[in-house]
Amino acid sequence: MIPPAHGGRLVSRIASDAVRDRRDAELADLPQVVPFIDQLYDADKIGIGAYSPLEGFQGSEAVASVVSRGRLPDGLPWTIPIVFPVPTGAAAERLRDVGPGDEVAIVDGRGRAVAMLRIDEQFPLDRHAIARGVYGTEDAAHPNVADLLAAGETAWAGPVTLLRRVEAAGGRPDPTPAETRDEFRQRGWNSVAAYQCRNPPHTAHEYIQRLTLEREDVDALLVHPVVGRLKKGDYRPEVILEAYQALVRHYYPAQRVVVQPLAITMRYGGPKAALFLAIVRKNFGCGVYIVGRDQAGVGKYYDPYACHRIFDQYDIGIRPLRYEESFFCRRCGWMASEKVCPHDPSQRVQTSQTRIRESLASGAELPVEILRPEVAAVLRRPNVILTE
Ligand SMILES: [Zn+2]
To answer: pTM value?
Structure first.
């Protein structure tokens, strides 16, 4: 069965055309707010129901509950606060008189109104408490902690109405949970496993995807790369999607795999981010969720298997499939993990994004034990990595 949305009802806060036209006419009179790009993606995801049951940016009570116990005030598991820090600097001066009871237009970098936010509450954002409680560190070297500490000290909370979708890869918005669920139904899939990723696929990814497709309790696989805010050195979203499409076209049964982007900012919160990413995939209709080693980790902040254990602490209504690190073992002559391979680690072919990037950059051939040639062909094209 396709699971119900988190909390039981798939939220939709997309304005109808009539409302949008009326709003467009009114927008000029409303305070315009250009937030950090993370909040644009979040407004979009609230609007399409990817963050069900959230209908808007969270207020002080919800944030305190999420940070301290990983749950919404009503007890439903939820581990990442979705907040709207009020912009600082010159923008703050202009917004000084805006507060509870007011409505603001959330505007993108090109001046287009993306959403409306009705301000129900203005509250001090305890950024250090969020850093400690969610990311487990206040170290400003952690990317999300750095963003948090750079954000304003005040936040607005309230319901969001989405006027216009935010673009994802290739200038198009990403599919909504309703569209994705419709596709699953039309294809007769009841049990879809979601695969979280941020990079093009190498053989270790392929191995756990194949193990998942082998299961009799899995009908299909949703490959769902997180695109969204990018940084220098990341692959372009189109490249990640094309690399996966090459893998699907040449090596997977196409009638059992779908690849689509998810445009949100990646939260590298280790276990708490892994649980959040699973909840989002449940909203997209996935009843099974693949959790690899050190999912949503960065640096050495998290125990690589804490992201497995958190699924024992919270029941979010979908089944986690937990996989250990996999590798190609020369002795086995096959992909393996410590669960199935008894050989010395020196027999393993090391697969890492770093090694793949270095080999591609130097023009060296990558063995098929690491990367499919059709995927390598996509990654060898010029201009696949963001340079600024
Ligand atoms: Zn072996």
So the answer is: 0.96
User: What average pLDDT does range 41-58 have in this prediction?
Assistant: 98
Tell me: pLDDT of 225 over 90. yes
Q: What is the pLDDT of residues 265-323, one digit of tens each?
A: 999 999 999 999 999 999 999 999 999 999 998 989 999 999 999 999 999 999 999 99
Distance (Å) from CA 59 to ligand 1 centroid: 52
User: What's the gap in Å between 338 CA and the centre of ligand 1?
Assistant: 8
Examine the pLDDT at 199 and tell me if it is beyond 80: yes
The CA 297 to ligand 1 mean position distance, Å, reads 27
Q: How far apart are CA 120 and CA 27, in angstroms?
A: 19
CA of residue 148 to ligand 1 center, whole Å: 44
Between the CA of 220 and the centroid of ligand 1 the distance, in Å, is: 29
Distance 351 CA to ligand 1 centre (A): 15
- Selection from 87-96, 250-259, 351-360 with the highest mean pLDDT: 250-259
Pairing of strands 192-197, 220-225: parallel
Give me ligand 1 centre to Cα 371, in Å: 19
